[in-house]
Amino acid sequence: MTLIKGDQKIVHALTLKQKALQINLNSHIYGTFAEIGAGQETVRHFFRAGGASGTIAKAMSAYDKVFSDEIYGSEEDKRYVTESRLRKMLHYEIDLIEDRLHREEHPDNIFFSYANTVTTIDFAKKFKGHGWVGIRFQMDPLEDYNEIVIHVRFKQTDSRLQQETLGMLGVNLIYGAFYMNENPKELLKSFYDNIESDTIEIDMVDFSGPRFMYVDNRLMSLYLVRNGMTDAVMFDPNGNNLLPAHVLYKKNILALRGSFRPVTKVNMEIYEESKKLFLNEKRVDKDNTKVIFEITLANLRSEGGKINERDFLDRAEILCSLGQTVMITNFQEYFKLVDYFSEFTKARMGLAMGVFNMIEIFDEKYYRDLSGGIMEAFGKLFYKDLKVYLYPLKDPDTGEIIDSQNLKVHPRLKELYKYFKSNGRIIDIENYNPEILDYYSRSIFKMISKGEEGWEEMVPEGVPELIKSHRLFGYKKRISKEKKKK
């Protein structure tokens, strides 16, 4: 709904009833609702809005596990609240409607299947619950189907309220799929229409199909964090969005934070050497270890505070080409990152970083918002089963190599630093190449964007070709002086 007030355009989100009614009154939209785990909360809105007979072919809830398995097939892991289960539900219901409603009799109908499989808060209120929600739909009878799949984590502590929130989210998703698919960014924001932002978290989204063929799901992940819908998202080397809870569950985690603009030989040396040290730990299982390249929103923002989408995708392109799993977070402080990991695992964790980052960790200005100050932060950071792998720094003025032995922190924090160092929580990366210590991403980026020579030897093998062929980071092909004269 758009209201005009003077020269100012004021946009108000439609109410849930208005959204449901608009879908119901569209004579072409016809489909099924399959909801498992929290009642038929979404379809209820469409029944109440009126005109539902023109929209709803079927509504069902296969609550019993045997019934559910008989309809959709069983999962290998025997779980029911999974992405695999949701996608099976969406495809099964579409196949069923296509089989029962012949195209000859319904030439103008565009079909859809909406589904969710969720678990709400448990009786002991220990686990708040989560779920998978999705829609499979078409925009033209002769066009293939599109899909939008999201994962949600409930924040409310009352199952009834969680059910109501799920129902509202479902209406927003269905409406957005049909009426906002040309603008995925706004579609994403619309998921929270009529919903308080602190009641639900969306930490994974996936768009697919002909209407979304130009959508980069990595960019959609970035929007989730930027819009405050979640604090962290992940994607794999193929650019597919991942559910952090699934990837990190009970894993040994080694995280490397950086700007990666672009990835340098230093970054990859930190990765390789810290990984060796981490896997050498007695409490680390190689087959149960996940290595993550993490970028914070702060590292993605320009000097003006804005996020350059192209710049983000350039970084993602290179990291993915190197076979890395990437995480985007809103955790500027390391203790928040470790705290987040601890939600999913109690296994040993590792942080790989340079000396400069370690110096920042011991800077009290980052903890002024904490009632317990730096002591509270360090309690959260090192109380966990955590080790830090420290890469040395070459002093640009003196040429001195700085590591954990000669690193200087504020005198007031000297004993605190010694304590963690003596307890084996901080480990030096001793096997390093001194010739590459002054390879900095910032300098390399400037060389690339200005068309200067020499940066190729500072980045990993294969990266120069990728940067040049895809014109990443504003790459400019150097023109020789002879050609300039001509």
In short:
The chain is of the alpha/beta class.
Our estimate of the beta-strand percent is 15-25%
Can you tell me the CATH class of the largest domain? Alpha Beta
- Assembly status: single chain
Number of helices: 18
Which of globular, elongated, flat, extended, rod-shaped describes the shape?
globular
Compute the average pLDDT.
Answer: 89
As for the number of domains, it is 2
For the terminal residues, how far apart are their CA atoms?
A: 59 Å
Nearest-angstrom radius of gyration? 26 Å
- The CATH superfamily of the largest domain turns out to be CinA-like
Structural class: alpha/beta
- The portion of residues assigned to helices is 25-40%
Catalogue the unreliable spans.
Answer: 1-11, 480-486
**How many beta-strand elements?**
18
Strand order of the largest sheet: 10-9-13-12-11-14-15-18
Major sheet summary line: 8 strands, mixed
The third-level CATH topology of the largest domain is Maf protein
**CATH architecture annotation of the largest domain:** Alpha-Beta Complex
Tell me about this structure.
There is one protein chain. The chain has 18 helices and 18 strands. The chain is globular, with a radius of gyration of 26 Å. The protein has 2 domains: 12-215, Alpha-Beta Complex (Maf protein); 246-436, Rossmann fold. Helix content is 36%, strand content 21%. Residues 1-11 and 480-486 have low confidence and may be disordered. It is of the alpha/beta class and 486 residues long. Strands 10-9-13-12-11-14-15-18 form an 8-stranded mixed beta sheet, sandwiched between helices.
